[in-house]
Write a structure and sequence with these properties.
heterodimer, A: alpha/beta, Rossmann fold, five-stranded parallel beta sheet, two-stranded antiparallel sheet, about 25% helix, B: alpha/beta, four-stranded parallel beta sheet, 4 strands
Chain lengths: ~325, ~150
């Protein structure tokens, strides 16, 4: 009777929506293979293991830690460093850990502005004493503490050294299952690899791709897209050309454009810049000579370039955040 | 005040056929202009990927100049139209990031416009000097610990 020692897995969520935890369960019956091969030694959403139990573990005790969520508080930074020390392999799981994700868009503001909007200025708020969160508050029973919220959202690899990236919002269940299998068989690629496709989403997209020339940008609610034709050709901004695949183009198959959660394609410095370059090559290309004077109006059709091209990747981008106001 | 000592660093992407030649003409004609421009020659302004501009700012450039052939005169016919659209979009992005869009400038300079090239660099240097050093170069932006 073989006495194979089970692998030890840990899962943690930082600045996250919880979708990545669900994604782990999305592998359906394959979860039985996972629990056959591994013991889950830490998973705040599901198991009552405490932080102090993790602190008590010897270094490298955990075989693989799947860390999802971006880093924007003291607590999250602490746990990233702790789990790095306690894990042999650390995987940035999901778009938030890989690139900053949706929470990363907070980098257009800072803590002061966020607190002012959320706790003071929003229309439905009634806060006559202007109370905002504090890191420390003394009450009769003692001192209450809250982790400090940072001005800047960071990716996991901007905080600690990581081993692998598993992008997606959330990662496709196939990619999760493949990653777990690679771990079990000890067949992981070299450190630093992205555990997804080496090609763009366009490669997996079944739509007909013809000549790309668009003059009008259509928001998704403005037209009913032809289900057979490339969305970009219909004027809908689809991030497919600048996004890593592996997701089976699920969004496109549901008649919605790709929004870029898979992160940049291999060898791309920055996802946002790559998409801008691609889109602007084909936007207004028909009659560009005659309408060069109107280029501003053409560009104005993209209402929010930062939110469109950097939806998941602002912290990972070259500039990373809006300039801090002094 | 150290402000008067500030000499901006401007990165210039100049297309081989028109604007680089124009800059060259300024040189051989011994036209004086500020030594603030660091020139990168590209074959066409359409080669200027938005990544180049963003990398330049990230590396601490106080300003970026992209110069190409006049509309209709592009050596590759339509590269400069792509450049125009890209730079316009980049300006919007820079604005959203809180960086003054005046730091990025697009100009059409022909091979015979040596004089005009020098004037452009002079004007841009004055403008950037007034804006001050790029907030990305003074340090702290990328080391935002918190």
């Amino acid at each position: 009777m073989e006495n194979v020692e089970k692998l030890k897995f840990a899962f943690y969520w930082a600045a996250s929506c919880g979708g990545c935890e669900i994604a782990v369960l999305d592998i359906n019956e394959k979860i039985l293979d996972v629990v056959a091969k591994a013991d889950i030694v830490f998973w705040p959403v599901a198991i009552d293991i405490k932080y102090k139990d993790v602190e008590a573990m010897p270094d490298k005790h955990v075989d693989v830690c799947f860390f999802n969520g971006a880093i924007r508080t003291e607590e999250q930074e602490h746990m990233a460093k702790l789990l790095r020390a306690k894990s042999k392999v650390l995987v940035a799981f999901g778009s938030c850990a890989c690139q900053g994700g949706i929470p990363g868009l907070a980098n257009v503001a800072d803590r002061k502005e966020i607190f002012e909007t959320a706790y003071l200025q929003s229309t439905s708020t009634n806060n006559p004493d202007s109370v905002t969160p504090k890191t420390s508050f003394v009450v009769m029973e003692g001192e209450l503490k809250l982790p400090e919220l940072f001005d800047t959202v960071k990716t996991l690899d901007q905080t600690v050294d990581i081993d692998y990236y598993l992008p997606g919002c959330p990662p496709h269940s196939n990619l999760v299952a493949e990653a777990v299998e690679a771990i079990a068989k000890n067949e992981l690629p070299p450190k630093g690899a992205v555990l997804a496709s080496e090609k763009s989403v366009c490669d997996e997209c079944p739509r007909k791709k013809e000549d790309k020339k668009i003059s009008k940008i259509n928001r998704v609610y403005e037209i009913v897209p032809d289900p057979e034709k490339c969305l970009l050709e219909q004027g809908i901004i689809c991030m497919g050309p600048a996004t890593r695949g592996g997701c089976e183009a699920q969004c496109v198959n549901a008649n919605m454009p790709c929004t870029g959660c898979g992160g940049p394609c291999p060898n791309e410095v920055e996802q946002g810049a790559a998409m801008m370059s691609a889109l602007l090559s084909i936007l207004g290309v028909d009659g560009e000579k005659e309408r060069a004077h109107d280029a501003k109006k053409l560009i104005a059709q993209v209402k929010d370039p930062l939110g469109t091209f950097y939806k998941y990747s602002l912290p990972a981008s070259l500039i990373r955040r809006r300039i801090m106001k002094s | 005040m150290t402000k008067s000592a500030f000499k901006p660093k401007i990165v210039g992407f100049l297309c081989n056929w028109c604007s680089y030649a124009g800059a060259d003409l300024a040189g051989v004609s011994r036209i004086q202009y500020p030594p603030t421009l660091r020139i990168v020659r590209v074959m066409c302004s359409g080669r200027v990927d938005p990544v180049f501009v963003l990398e330049a700012f990230r590396s601490g450039a106080d300003g970026v100049l992209v110069a190409g052939c006049h509309p209709g005169d592009c050596h590759y016919l339509s590269g400069n139209y792509k450049a125009q659209r890209r730079i316009l979009m980049l300006k919007k992005v820079l604005e959203q990031l809180g960086l003054e869009p005046e730091r990025l400038r697009l100009e059409w300079v022909s091979a015979s416009e040596g004089d005009r090239f020098a004037t452009i660099v002079k004007d841009m240097t004055e403008e950037i000097t007034k804006l001050g050093p790029s907030p990305l170069s003074v340090g702290g932006h990328f080391n935002v610990k918190k």
